[in-house]
Amino acid sequence: MEAEAVIFADQVSLNSLVQNLVYASGTVGAIFVVVGLLLIDAGMVRRQNLFSTTIEKVVGFFIGFATYFVIGFAIWAAQYYIMEDFTMGDSIADWWLGGGLVNAYAQDIDPAVFPGLNNFQIFVFFLACFAGIINVLLHYAVSERMKASAYYITCVVATIVSSYLSFLTWGSVGPLTNPGFHDFFGVGFVYIFPAAMGVVFAYKLGARPGYFSPHPRVSGYYPPSIGLAAAGVMTIFAGIPMVILSCLFFFDPEALAVSVTMAEASVGVAFNNYGLSWAGGAVSGAIIAYSTRKYTYLLLGPLAGYVAGASGFDVWMPWQTFVVALGAPVVSYVVYEFTYKRLIDEHKLIPLFLGAGVYGLIMVGIFKAGTPRSGYLGFEEGAFAFQHAEISLVMQLVGIGVVIGLGVVTAAILTFILERTTGLRVDEDMQIDGLDARFWDIKTDVKTLAEIEEKAAGMTEAGPRGA
């Protein structure tokens, strides 16, 4: 006679369902972020490349998403296994795509073996979305000039390396987070890492024809829809509040929120910090834009404020976030102008993430130094005791150095290999004609300068119709 199945009710209680919904909302917010990023790009690239750049980002997102399911989450989760005297190998055995805990129903697993299994399973989806977002952001640095095959290979590698970086820098008991490196929103591995890779790729790929100066066949780069890009910015603004909830842990009493860094936090303060980061960046960015008559800062400003504040949404007070956010567009402005004058064709990731992102992490280290964090709730002594470490400027600088260093090294190795195998750069003629027409045979209603001149020359030779 078959034994009756045991149901572990604590794993599927009403309280656990509420937490499941909170974390599931973060995945919805992450998808809104992807939509916003696609809209920004659609409003800024040449029409001749609109389909290609969009679809490459979508495919790159799902390559990162799938790779994260295969191995990425198992790497990140290893910090909690090590905390319990297990190994990264144990984490991989449980959490790779074919692992026992990925492929189990929560009600079938004894809480003594793994409590809160549903939440961890939902976290795979949530963090997989951000693995995909890293690849979407990376594409901004190589858009319209990197071969699709090279980009897709890069997506796999970037996902694995960023997963290891998240193990190091995002959480509370990783090798860098446990001693005190503080990054509430994953600015390091989500934003700064692809920006560091982007520096190397932008240097190796060179500028797009006609970007900095007129080209015989490309008169210039003219954004097709700034309004569409602005809508993308606001879509991101709408999506991230749901993500913030997923960066908080909730313990008894049931409304007690503790940051993923194990710093004291609350939902209301974190949300207000988020809103004011955008507002501060928008105000400062608008001042720069109207002073210089460069519309770019109207879009960069709110994003810069958000990126600068994100690493400390859990520990800043709202007024502090607003002040920090006011300074972020200034930092981005300095970095943007520096790269533009040196003809570096990458003006999104570098000023926003290497500029505002690094600035924000440093501000946390300066003004929130001494804030208790690290370890894990319930551990009262030992290497992982709850809030045993403090935020420090030294650990912030160490974390920044590790993230940028891994980004640069990863991209340098990839460019060396890709240039000698698949090739790295789309040839100039294809860049000029547009990837949509040359690769996909998609015609747009926009003609290049060369096509207009060719048509004009043909009419001159043939004479007016009817002559």
Topology at a glance:
Elements: H1 14-42, H2 50-83, H3 88-95, H4 117-142, H5 148-169, H6 187-205, H7 226-245, E1 248-251, E2 256-259, H8 267-292, H9 296-310, H10 318-341, H11 349-367, E3 372-373, E4 389-390, H12 393-419, H13 428-433, H14 435-440, H15 449-462
Antiparallel strand pairs: 1-2, 3-4
Protein name: Ammonium transporter
Transmembrane segments: 21-40, 61-82, 120-138, 150-172, 184-205, 226-251, 271-290, 297-313, 319-338, 350-371, 391-418
Keywords: Membrane, Transmembrane, Transmembrane helix
Q: What would you say this structure looks like, in words?
A:
The protein is mainly alpha-helical. The chain has one domain (12-442): Orthogonal Bundle (Ammonium transporter fold). 63% of the residues lie in helices and 3% in strands. It is built from 15 helices and four strands. It has helices spanning 14-42, 50-83, 88-95, 117-142, 148-169, 187-205, 226-245, 267-292, 296-310, 318-341, 349-367, 393-419, 428-433, 435-440, 449-462, and strands spanning 248-251, 256-259, 372-373, 389-390. The protein has a two-stranded antiparallel ribbon with strand order 1-2. Strands 3-4 form a two-stranded antiparallel ribbon. A hairpin with a 4-residue loop joins strand 1 and strand 2 (256-259). Helix 7 (226-245) packs antiparallel against helix 8 (267-292). The chain is globular and about 80 Å long. The model is unreliable at 459-467 (pLDDT under 50).
